[in-house]
Design brief:
HDH (chains A, B); Dihydrodipicolinate Reductase, domain 2; alpha/beta; eleven-stranded mixed sheet; oxidoreductase (chains A, B); homodimer; 38% helix; 433 residues; Rossmann fold; Alpha-Beta Plaits
């Protein structure tokens, strides 16, 4: 059979990895796919640089639109990133009947509805395994492996940069700034680390996972996002003392009133499996009503781990590109006409356990006043520690049972107005799973 | 669209779970699959008992051959187990053009070649996600999620019964007999636990994983199998003292000379992710050249976890039952005409690290003699501990670097013939991954 013809947009880290993996494993891939997969055309900014990599049998252009319109091309692989040009290119590729493989989480989180609708109308596939958790086949697990289940929640470490930073802060006692600098030196963090450390990258991925878990539209704008920049060494140490570790988790959970969709630093029990995912590794825990908890672990980024997902998608598309659309897995796991309009809950309505840390005057009655305030707000205390501090102050840390966030925030406001308070209340969420 | 019609053979633990999950999640499954999946006929030994469960709209028979020959049925789900009748039923179902979903690892490990060939000739699918690691979609991960990779090795805890026993022995200091009895009381072990504790069940699953990882025929008879019945509390404790835990692992690895295919108790570092898979949980670690290590974790057995895999297969078959065979994933991940004839290595040629424990007279020169014998056999020592014992004996434990098993066995034979030996040498394999 003729090789299937691929146009590659972008020959950076992931594009280069995709090129390398396809070539190195061509024989093995052919044995699996039953057909060769050939990159016939590449669009890059620097044509000369690309020429040094890909050799003379591949056409190179600096105009990506030439590639997405090229009649010989069956599948377009979009690895240029960004949301403006990439969106135009994807829509143009779809309009020309191309199937698309992409790693672009930002684009799909923001413009997924438009793109998937266009693809469905045209009868082409958009695959995006590489957009979430690198080489871990988590999208395949949720879209296909766990289809028997009513999925209850998904919780994951889906940003390797922040997991690396938190691991280094905890195990090597680095400050946030030191750990970030080290992550940049190792290539785990970009020169502008904003999207990682602010939780935006994790929220984009979580938005896609939530959509596939619950059959809801992609709604990035409704995600609650809190990064790790405000975390103090003190909280990391206190968490450890209490038997927890702090991880930046993406959590999406089905509740009676709607769907929780939130990214924030989270205390998880130190002996739990998520707590032990260290360095730049990713892991996603999925809870289904039939299967219970399953976990998917691996490298969430990097040249070849991400290329592994891109090439797996290429093989899936190669198998199914001539199939009826009904024989393909729906883009977002549920049939387009069966998507549900379940609301995303605002963060105020989220239910979690909480870690509350504060500094108070070390005088009688303080504990009673705070405990009464929490009790009045309907918040039950799971455990508490008091530690003496300098200057006659005491450090209090409460771990609460499950409570609604707005009740906790109201209680915090009341507590902060009490006369014996010597700090604001640091509030972190706690999940036991 | 008309519901797809399923004939169910067996309504025991997994059959009952499949019935329950399909009914409870019918709406969710329909939203995903785009089509209802309906069990129209059930074959059981006890018709009256089944009638109480399935209601009047389902035909019940005690002749499973009626079901596999029933023209109205599209998919046969085989959950009766065993290898004799089940083999005949599967071949008959295939001959009648039925697709088959099965959880029968023993059958596929022993008769897979015959069954897959028959299915390929007839153009029907045999799916078996439930045959390995229960609800964990590990077969989908290897057959589809990691297709870009040249897989180097797979190592897994794929028998929950033995993992539960080893966890209890370690954490609660039970003897093997006590832990087995407890596993039986909890329903984790069967009345006849032979297939679990002897490693046979794990080897059947590993045989299937190896075939899909490397594109080789299913060859259960060539697997090396060693169970956990000979493990002593002393070795569990010594392993822990050395920073290891003992797990029953299935390991299959590609080497230049062939494929290793082996199930045996294995020391793994206590802080490694596999070491921390406790109780009856399963986990499979896969190493691919592009993606690196990925791990898949969850419940490896039980009514609904296993049903989760059966129903996911039903949904896959529902999507693809009218597709061209070329649009389906090959049964064993590689195209039938591209299977490789790589030999399975005999256990003598396996390469591993080793734990060697022995009791010796506590006299000068013993250590030098043993070290020289190991060195003569080309075996390098990684670490050693000596502990005094009663009666003037000393207990020696060596951890070796990688060595070929036959060299280790020869060295052990020489050491055991030395005059100062007061025990045989206990030999366990060690893997660091």
């Amino acid at each position: 059979m003729e090789p299937i013809k691929v146009g590659l947009l972008g020959l950076g880290v992931v594009g280069g990895g995709t090129w390398n993996v396809l070539r190195r494993n061509a024989e093995e891939i052919g044995r699996r796919a039953g057909r060769q997969i050939e990159i016939v055309r590449v669009a890059v900014r620097d044509v000369a640089k690309a020429r040094a990599k890909v050799g003379a049998d591949v056409q190179i252009t600096d105009d990506a639109f030439e590639v997405v319109r090229d009649p010989q091309i069956d599948i377009v692989v979009e690895l240029i990133g960004g949301v403006t040009l990439a969106r135009e290119l994807l829509l143009e590729a779809i309009a020309h009947g191309k199937h698309v493989v992409t790693a672009n989480k930002a684009l799909l989180a923001m413009h997924g509805t438009e793109i998937f609708e266009a693809a469905s109308r045209k009868g082409v596939m958009i695959t995006f395994e590489a957009a979430v958790a690198g080489g871990i086949p988590i999208i395949k697990a949720i879209r296909e492996g766990l289809t028997a289940n009513r999925i209850e929640w998904v919780a994951g470490i889906i940003n390797g940069t922040t997991n690396y930073i938190l691991s280094e802060m905890r195990t090597n006692k680095l400050t946030f700034a030191q750990a970030l600098q080290q992550a940049q030196q190792l290539g785990y963090a970009e020169a502008d680390p904003t999207a990682d450390i602010q939780g935006i990258d994790a929220a984009q991925k979580l938005t896609l996972l939530a959509s596939m878990a619950f059959g809801i539209p992609v709604q990035f704008s409704k995600a609650y996002i809190e990064g790790i920049t405000q975390l103090s060494d003190e909280d990391l140490e206190t968490a450890q003392y209490l038997g927890y570790r702090i991880k930046l988790l993406g959590i999406t959970r089905r509740r009676a009133q709607g769907i929780e969709l939130r990214v924030h630093p989270t205390l998880v029990p130190a002996n739990s499996i998520l707590a032990n995912v260290e360095d730049a590794m990713n892991a996603v825990l999925v809870n289904g009503d039939a299967v219970g908890q399953t976990l998917y672990y691996g490298k969430g980024a990097g040249e070849e781990p991400t290329a592994s997902a891109v090439v797996a998608d290429l093989i899936d598309v190669t198998r199914l590109h001539t199939a009826d659309p009904g024989q393909r897995v729906p883009h977002l796991a549920f049939q387009p006409d069966a998507m549900a309009d379940i609301p995303i809950l605002p963060i105020d309505e989220v239910v979690s356990s909480y870690y509350l840390r504060m500094m108070v005057d070390d005088v009688p009655g303080v504990l009673a006043d705070i405990a009464r305030e929490l009790s009045n707000a309907g918040i039950s205390i799971g455990s508490m520690i008091q530690q003496p501090s300098e200057q006659g102050y005491a450090r209090l840390v409460f771990l609460t049972h499950s409570a609604q966030e707005q009740a906790v925030n109201r209680a915090i406001a009341s507590i902060e107005s009490m006369p014996f308070m010597r700090s604001q209340v640091t509030r972190l969420r706690v999940e036991e799973f």
